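Homework-ish question, so no full write-ups if that breaks the rules, but can someone show me the predicted structure for this set?
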Amino acid sequence: MITLQWLYVLAGAMFAGFAILSAADRTNGKRFGNAAFWGLMALSLLAGDLIGDLGNGLLVLGLAALAGFGFVGRGNPATTSFAEREDYSARFGNRLFLPALIIPVTALFGTLLYNYSPLGSSGLFEAKRETYVLLGLGVLLALVTIFVWLRPPALAPLQEGRRLIDSIGWAAVLPQMLAALGVLFAAAGVGDIIGGLTRSVIPEGSVFLTAAVFGIGMALFTMVMGNAFAAFPVMAAAIGVPLLIQDYGGDPAVIGAVGMLAGFCGTLMTPMAANFNLVPAALLELKDQYGVIKAQVATALPLLLLNIVIIFVAAFR
Amino acid sequence: MNYWPLLGILLVVAGFALRLNPMLVVTVAALATGLLAGLDPLEVVATFGKAFNDNRIIAIVWIVLPVIGMLERFGLQQRAATLIRSMQKATTGKLLLLYLGYRQITAAIGLHSTAGQAQTVRPLVAPMALAAAEKEHGELDEKTAEEVKAMSAATDNVGLFFGEDIFFAIGSIVLIQATLATYGINLAPLQLAVWAIPTAILAFLIHGARLMLLDRRLRRSGK
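A: Not a homework solution, just the prediction itself:
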């Protein structure tokens, strides 16, 4: 059976490749910082289950220290020039989109085929994880296609991947850190405290008001945390699971999915979501650093209201 | 009730407000929250590490980077630019509406890293939106130009946020699934992803209507 473990090995090997190539990149003044950072990510993916909870904790502290104290920089792997890319684009035309489509098509149709054909009972893939396994398969298929068609240098996938991961930098690890922060908040009872505070303002038995407090709470807590990923476990523990799902019998798929989207409405309205709201203001040289947020409020607020309506109508139909 | 752990939230807010490195802010807030809840220091580090390890699936998404990078190497972005340029008879609003739809659909099929604020908005979308606005409105004053640029960035965010959750192999869907699983509620990613569709349609209608209103304002105030 192909399990998630295979994917962790694949991703871990990739990060190990990034680490080794980073260490050898003399154009990057912080090359050993980068090598250590991506090396720790490789270790986490390859051996996370072997090094124990405390080992993982020290690993995370290492990642945070490397990123937080400025040891991670940006490598300059050799790639093609703008002129060469224009030239390739003209030469290959729209066929260039085909390898890009291999990954989503493999993941999407593979999942549908697997779930709606006898293949699903074969036990080939780990249960409920087939999409991720197929995503990995799609990546490998796309790479093979590109190699057969375009014949790039052998190390090109790792170097180009390193170019992109370096442009994202530590931000690539932040969602996972925020998810872990959410777990710690839950362990410390933050969800219970907020749940207690919010529950005290909800009239007993009012499903609509409970749904409204859940949606608005997702948005507000996302604005505070800068990320719906951190807000979701807290609001799920506070209101989503105990009240909406267990007490009122709401559909967990609707409450989970639309609750997260209510959080995204908060993401549109907060400077804490720096990547989306402050970075583009700088990129576009806006005078007002909150200009992008101001442009988004009038979309976010009505959408938040409608998300609450969807939860109320669809989860309790 | 022990309310001290709420200080962790305050640390996050303060850290971001002071523009400290988010990795440090998150780590310090996590450690402080655990300690304030009365856990011992080693236990806090171990809990944080276990949670990080349990959420490794979020890191799996990065395995697409080598493929995206290779396609960039062979001119995918330039190809996408050519394709969008060939649709250029539009006004600012129509152009951004088209981009909104493009962004939502590509995000919905997992191609969210093929566009973005740095890759497409700055070099392509914002300049095209500005050029289209000048066609309607004549020379733009600073306030109008800022508004068009801000709306270009906003359109990218709205399209990404309310498209990507339809693609079931994305971090947020995984997180919802993993969180609910801790309560014994087991859902397949596809069951969650379908419920992203109504909001995606509403986001398109609301933001699209605002883009059409922007067009009208530009036309009225022009020349």
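Now go work out the reasoning yourself. Hint: Chain A is about 75% helix and 0% strand.
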